[in-house]
Amino acid sequence: MIKNPVAFFLLAIPVLYSIIIHELAHGWIAYRMGDPTAKQAGRLSLNPLKHLDPVGTLMLFIFGFGWAKPVPINLAYVRDMRKGLILVSSAGIIANIVVAFIALLLLRILSPSSEGITLLLHYLAQINIILAAFNLIPIPPLDGSKILMGFMSERFQYLFSRLEPYGLFIIIALLYIGALNPVIAMFRRIILSMIGSLLP
Questions:
Q1: Pseudo-torsion of CA 165, 96, 26, 24, nearest 10°?
Q2: Which CA distances in Å does 135 have to 147, 185, 187?
Q3: Which residues pair with 68 in a beta bridge?
Q4: What is the arithmetic mean of pLDDT over 142-166?
Q5: Domain count, the chain
């Protein structure tokens, strides 16, 4: 539990809006590809109440990894369903990486003199890198599983999708025993390497 109100604020705000941006990206890309479902459900919004999942948010604060309510997507509206699955699923991860890049770029360029701004940008970068790394894990319903499914045959997509009702319990169990930590650390290093190669 974070007892310092300032520290809690500096952590809570980046966490909150990093999750929102992640989900908003899924819905926006789906909408751009012809699927109006997220827009009709009011999910193309920055309103936190539209996106937050109580369990996913709690897990984020306890373990450092979490999720929001899945954005409703109907790929039947998309001409190329396989391409749609890959792009829509990748959108949230890419959005988090972009936010992390911008935060680290601002830290490097501005060298903020304010400790509060420095901490905010640092938290923003780290949270978005962790969210991107976590969501790359190929366990349903995480984005990594959907990206992987985009490259599978229909038969394997069906078999893989049958794991989804149990995915949340599998993820929580693996987080609890620490089995996902090496995977997340690996993805985190890859993302940091990508960002580092782009920073001036």
A1: 110
A2: 10, 12, 10
A3: 52
A4: 90
A5: 1
